User: Fold Phosphoribosylaminoimidazole-succinocarboxamide synthase from Mediterraneibacter catenae.
Amino acid sequence: MKPIKEGKVREIYDNGDSLILVATDRISCFDVILKNTITKKGTVLTQMSKFWFDMTSDILPNHMITTDVNEMPEFFRQPQFDGNSMMCKKLQMLPVECIVRGYITGSGWASYQKDGTVCGIRLPEGLKESDKLPEPIYTPSTKAEIGDHDENISYEQSIEHLEKAFPGKGEEYAQKLRDYTIALYKKCADYALSRGIIIADTKFEFGLDEDGNIVLGDEMLTPDSSRFWPADGYEPGHGQPSFDKQFARDWLKANPDNDWTLPEDIVEKTIDKYLQSYEMLTGKKLQ
Assistant:
């Protein structure tokens, strides 16, 4: 079988009435696929998504059918697919990335320093870098093709964007996406905090099933789609150490002539961060 679509990190296979999403060990930073691979990373992403999908199925349905390769076509019963593959329902994906920020960091912090707003939302004065926001904020973006950058849009623009794709449904979908995004984030961020991890921000993607219901798709609350910080030692006023790609990003920024290749020790440290976040959140070691 050949993938019908290859993303920066994922490969998607068409399985008739379902899709099989394979999370590879590739790593992308700044929208570029690096030359290194991060062993076990794909398995962490898939198993962590499964953990969160199971936990939030009371808020809304998700697209996961199974992560057991024995329930997939024979082609996937090979070692390179075991643990990092998820069979999913086919959805008509909605053209908005649903970003939620519970803390001020990254591009949000840069924007706030300029004019006191994040994605057009005015925030209280006097916030420090990495401060917890009074309430999580919803800052949607458009979905870019590979090689392009996603573009932040306001909630009002998200209505227009969805209206173009689904005439008569823009406002209804925009409202539901916002409400689901905030509800998912609040439940999972509270749980993560109890396990020693702060979820500073994350993004979700949603689609429609054959009956027109909104369903959670793609990946969920992984170190690739979120900023995870250790709660132990959290201190606003500067950037925080993190359990995600930030480690790799920081090295690339500090070494501009990097040729998109990480040194072995940075690869090792990145793998350790992924595994540590999985074990802290789930209480289990990765098989």
About this structure: Residues 279 and 286 are 7 Å apart (CA to CA).
